[in-house]
Design goal:
By secondary structure, the protein is an alpha/beta fold. It has three domains: 97 residues, 4-hydroxy-3-methylbut-2-enyl diphosphate reductase, catalytic domain (Cobalt-precorrin-4 Transmethylase, domain 1, 3-Layer(aba) Sandwich); 87 residues, Rossmann fold, CATH 3.40.50; 72 residues, Cobalt-precorrin-4 Transmethylase, domain 1. It is built from ten helices and twelve strands. The strands form three sheets. A four-stranded parallel sheet has the order 1-12-10-11, sandwiched between helices. A four-stranded parallel sheet has the order 3-2-4-5, with helices on one face. It has a four-stranded parallel sheet with strand order 7-6-8-9, with helices on both faces. α5 links the parallel β6 and β7. The structure holds FE3-S4 cluster. FE3-S4 cluster (F3S) binds next to α1, α4 and α8.
Length: 283
Amino acid sequence: MEVIVAEHAGFCFGVTKAVETVYEQIEKENSNIYTYGPIIHNETVVSDLEKKGVKVIESVDELEGIGSGTVVIRSHGVTKEVHQKLEQSGLNVIDATCPFVKRIHRIVEDESKKGKSIIVVGSESHPEVEGIVSYATGPVYVIDSPEKAMEFEGDKKLEYTVVSQTTFNKNKFQETIEIFKNVGYNINIVNTICNATDERQTEAEEIASRADVMIVIGGTHSSNSRKLYEICANKCTNTYFIQTLDDLHLEIPRSAKLIGITAGASTPKNIIEEVQKHVRTNF
Ligand code: F3S
């Protein structure tokens, strides 16, 4: 059985930087280290940090009870309002928002100041999208699928700037903007799907189209991992979504020759290694 592990699997640049930032603070023996939300959607990493004393703040209301310490903003950023509240809290704020996400904040702020309406293609409840939306100073809409784009009732006399969540499914983004174009909206498109996501999805799709079995490793709450699963499942019917090796109960078809493995941006290397080793040894 041939086993292929995607080259673009696991931590992306932005996640690596955010996680390293927290570990650096631990090494500096700073006390009272907090992250605003879990630093990544990976329970293994979050519980390791917890054991080392790092606490997770879930909302600005919790800031009141904290006298001193350091708070790290995770890679997908926070809303403008939360950012301001953190700055005013008196805590030492380390902003590990990925520069690719910050770029979207700037685009949205600038474009909406110019009078454009903003359309964000992404999942409305995702913290990254909540952050992006908060930088609009005028009308802003979130569209999470081509189906929702069909239902969109905008004003064709207005100008729209369209951006995307950094981890959005690139094929669905294309489909979505085609609909806006065909309906006749005046749109300026800025494809802000980040390179790391694009490469990861393109490679996963290519491997899945050849593989008999595909394994996607990612946190259950990780939206980029779920999108990766969607893409792979579309090409390979035997696609498995697992968080760690413990979840893997493979049923390999008799004729299977190729197993592909990929992983979302919040999956640590050691988990990918473990799964890979297990598959190579047992199949
Ligand atoms: Fe940044 Fe792209 Fe990762 S936006 S956090 S490098 S998926």
